[in-house]
Amino acid sequence: MRLADAASLKGISKSPNEKLVIGLIGCGGMGAANMRNLMNFPDVEVAALCDVDDARIPNDLRDVEHKYGRKPDVYKDYRKILDRKDIDAVIVGTPDHWHALVLIHACEAGKDAYCEKPLSHDIVESVYMAEAVKHHKRIVQCGTWQRSTREFTDALDYVRSGKLGKIILTRAWITDGFRAGHQKPTTPPSGLDYDMWVGPAEFVPYQSNRLHFNWRWFMNFGGGMSTDWGVHMMDIALLGMSRDQDLVMPTSVSAYGGQWAITDDDRNAPDTMQAIYRFENPDFAMHWQIGLDHPEKEGHGTEFVSADGRTLRVWRGGWKVLDPGGKELPKEEAAPPPDHWRNWVDCVKTRSAPRASLPSVAQTTIVCHLSNVALSSGETVHWDNKKQDLVGKAGRNSLSYHRPYRKGYKLPEYKPA
Ligand SMILES: NC(=O)c1ccc[n+]([C@@H]2O[C@H](COP(=O)([O-])OP(=O)(O)OC[C@H]3O[C@@H](n4cnc5c(N)ncnc54)[C@H](O)[C@@H]3O)[C@@H](O)[C@H]2O)c1
Fold it and tell me: What is the pLDDT of residues 307-350, one digit of tens each?
């Protein structure tokens, strides 16, 4: 019997030495980076790789063969991996527009997962993904690995301990100067199943500058920087203001911006965004910004501002506490957190919630999409956390709220009770 099945059926913990057999869905990019991290553990084995583009497979195949002394099985259709009884878990490393289908199908096949962020392409997908994970009792770690790095855990400990005092404002930001350039539609390369790459998204002709990595700046496949980096940086703001992984959620969001700076380019994600989120009980505001300049700050980061004017700033690589005049104040460091990927493997074995458990990162992903909903609809949108839905009509027509799937694809509906 598969490790994950045995554990969830019997409700028991598994022996620490038992091997977790995994398959990678979406090679070449961050999915492969996750796979390499997991291959460092003696109790993990990679059995299969899957990608719709043959060109993305050779490097990953070579490394897996080198590590285990045998070739992994290779597939173009992820459902072939999900059919395999000997595979316990999958890495979901596809572009965002595929996450919901692959992850929900994996849950239905009884697989645990390491799923990349942002979780979804729209809000409704995130809600259904969280429900599917709970319904099928799957252990899913998400790619928000900052939840397991020292600067962020130290900064969060400091904020949550109350040392910064009452927090009235959080800020998160990212710099975005990406250009995709211009390209004309061409015939897809022969090894790429382009129709499958587009999957549930609206079909558009093949253009190589919309494909690997670049897709995040095309709203048909990604959500721009609000989801790509927002899910990292706003996640920290939300965690700091929450007691545990069940995050505080905003009651309303307004946004202003657009594609104003990088206009002569095929990308269509906003390069400029000023979004304001309102939270109640406790009352505070969150400011999210995409822009071209962030002088005297890192290119990305999260800040907490207290009622007495102190600021805690954290970014990849460090954190500091500043007085209202900008003078650095003493800070404290705690014990280092566990490795993010190791934490997932351990949680799969003990059937406990990992540090970036999917239902929690689904909340952050919804918060990120809300800025795109507010921007694309031009309306202030309101969120009902109990119903896990927008309030009223505002924002409901936005594709970032819910986008129709292409003919032939259907999102399984896991509606909250
Ligand atoms: N956690 C992080 O820090 C981090 C960093 C980078 C990317 N990411 C996330 O990782 C995911 C992948 O991003 P990337 O930059 O590696 O993208 P990428 O385009 O480089 O790689 C995605 C791969 O998935 C393949 N693919 C597409 N549809 C597929 C399908 N149906 N079945 C199998 N394979 C399919 C593509 O052909 C491609 O090889 C995204 O969700 C992204 O947001 C996370």
Answer: 999 999 999 999 999 999 999 999 988 888 999 999 999 999 99
Asked whether residue 416 is assigned to any structural domain, the reply reads no
What are the CA-CA distances from residue 371 to residues 20, 220, 291, 301 (Å)? Answer: 38, 16, 14, 17
Does 100 share its domain with 119?
yes
Q: Which residue's CA is minimally distant from atom 38 of ligand 1?
A: 26
pLDDT > 90? residue 4: no
Predicted confidence (pLDDT) at residue 13 exceeds the cutoff of 60:
no
* pLDDT value, residue 217: 98
Q: Is residue 415 part of a domain?
A: no
- 114 ligand 1 Cβ < 6 A: no
Residue listed under structure tokens 């069940």 = 246
pLDDT for residue 16: 63
Judged on CB neighbours under 10 Å (0-12, 13-18, 19+), 212 is middle
Domain span holding position 235: 150-334+366-390
CA of 188 relative to ligand 1 center, distance in Å: 18
Is-above-0.90 flag for pTM?
yes
Same domain (yes/no): 9, 101: yes
Cβ(117) to ligand 1 under 6 A? yes
In a shared domain, residues 25 and 39: yes
- Which CATH number fits the domain that encloses residue 303? 3.30.360.10
Residue 401 lies in a domain: no
CA distance 206 to 183: 10
Q: Are residues 221 and 184 in the same domain?
A: yes
For residue 15, what pLDDT is reported?
Answer: 62
Ligand 1: centre distance to CA 122 (Å):
17
Q: Is the CB of 23 under 6 A from ligand 1?
A: no
Amino acid, single-letter form, for residue 2: R
Cβ of 116 less than 6 Å from ligand 1: yes
Residue at token pair 């351990």 = 346
CB distance 60 to ligand 1 below 6 Å = no
Specify whether 241 is located in the same domain as 186.
Answer: yes
Give yes or no for residue 197 CB within 6 A of ligand 1.
yes
Residue 411 exposure: Cα atoms within 13 Å on the Cβ side: 26
CA of residue 97 to ligand 1 center, whole Å: 10
Instruction: Indicate whether 263 pLDDT > 90.
Output: yes
